[in-house]
């Protein structure tokens, strides 16, 4: 099984489509990376990108995106509702398939080191990659935001993990690290920003400070106002959705809003969401409301309805659930990453794909890599077919030996030396 890491870089640009698209293109053009989702926000002036690939590929994809953003984003003029400390504000690496958290920590270390060397900017480590407990959470590293950086960088306790301890006005600083799945989840209110923030302080784990903890563990939160939607949001990060699920956050905020006579008008997932998070919430509502629902598709629909996930725009499960997106978007990359032995075993498996098309493409790629051109396409097909018959009486991986001799029916046409 191929190794897959998810990378979720957050860039401080959510309004300029040309910049957003340029960063998307930089990721998409990186070999081995599959861009799954781009979620821009105008009021937050921030875009969240989600892509997957092998550990090495996602590091390259993140670096390519950062290189593109460096010439297009100017933090000196940046304004937005979302807390931020740099043009590439945060870049976490998340284990998806056949990788460990340690693998993702190595991705963060490599990315941070190379980013600092490439752009000469300060880089901090957080999460599982943090080198001190003080820097483990993103809010603590980002405290004071971009505006506080000039003075913050002068303090020994806030010296960056990589790069210079000097202020780069156009960029700010970048925070990178490794973590488990995080769900960015916002609940919509017809209220003021201050009322939404009041509820956020009550529910988030940190609460209002020392001696005043909130009621929801593993939840970060704040309140803001979306001008484009004319409503406020209690914006939360669910650090562990198995400890505090989506429905728990939604129902608690609804309860607090009711106490203030504030209407709740749906909610929003930013980026992608794990399937299990939705199914857990479905099971809650099925039990609470005594419903009879068995199919996965119907359970997902139930949660979309109960939480109002489509209140600010369509919520297409095939485009918003990470397992569905990985299956669709990363399938080709997974196939390409297989060894010859793994590819043969995959073809032999009792599944519809890979099949004849993949086999033909693989053979064509091997022939092209030898710089061999057939005198006729028919002759090439005849030669391949005749060699393939050998597979009936030999081991499959003897294919490499079958093809090891130059064919009589194909002429070598290499360019002359100059």
Automatic annotation (TrEMBL):
GO molecular function term, any single one: glutamate formimidoyltransferase activity
Domain Formiminotransferase N-terminal subdomain: start-end pairs: 3-180
Formiminotransferase C-terminal subdomain domain mapped to chain residues: 181-325
EC number assigned by the record: 2.1.2.5, 4.3.1.4
Keyword Chloroplast found: no
Pathway(s) the chain acts in: Amino-acid degradation; L-histidine degradation into L-glutamate; L-glutamate from N-formimidoyl-L-glutamate (transferase route): step 1/1
One GO process term, biological-process aspect: L-histidine metabolic process
Keywords, ordered alphabetically: Cytoplasm, Cytoskeleton, Folate-binding, Golgi apparatus, Histidine metabolism, Lyase, Multifunctional enzyme, Transferase
Gene3D superfamilies: Formiminotetrahydrofolate cyclodeaminase monomer, up-and-down helical bundle, Formiminotransferase, C-terminal subdomain, Formiminotransferase, N-terminal subdomain
Chief subcellular location: cytoplasm
GO cellular component: a single term: Golgi apparatus
Subcellular localization, as worded in the UniProt entry: Cytoplasm, Cytoskeleton, Microtubule organizing center, Centrosome, Centriole; Golgi apparatus
Family, as annotated: In the C-terminal section; belongs to the cyclodeaminase/cyclohydrolase family.
Function in brief: Folate-dependent enzyme, that displays both transferase and deaminase activity. Serves to channel one-carbon units from formiminoglutamate to the folate pool. Binds and promotes bundling of vimentin filaments originating from the Golgi.
NCBIfam families per the UniProt record, alphabetical: FtcD
Subunit structure of this chain's protein: Homooctamer, including four polyglutamate binding sites. The subunits are arranged as a tetramer of dimers, and form a planar ring-shaped structure.
Protein name in the entry: Formimidoyltransferase-cyclodeaminase
Source organism per UniProt: Muraenolepis orangiensis
Taxon lineage: Eukaryota, Metazoa, Chordata, Craniata, Vertebrata
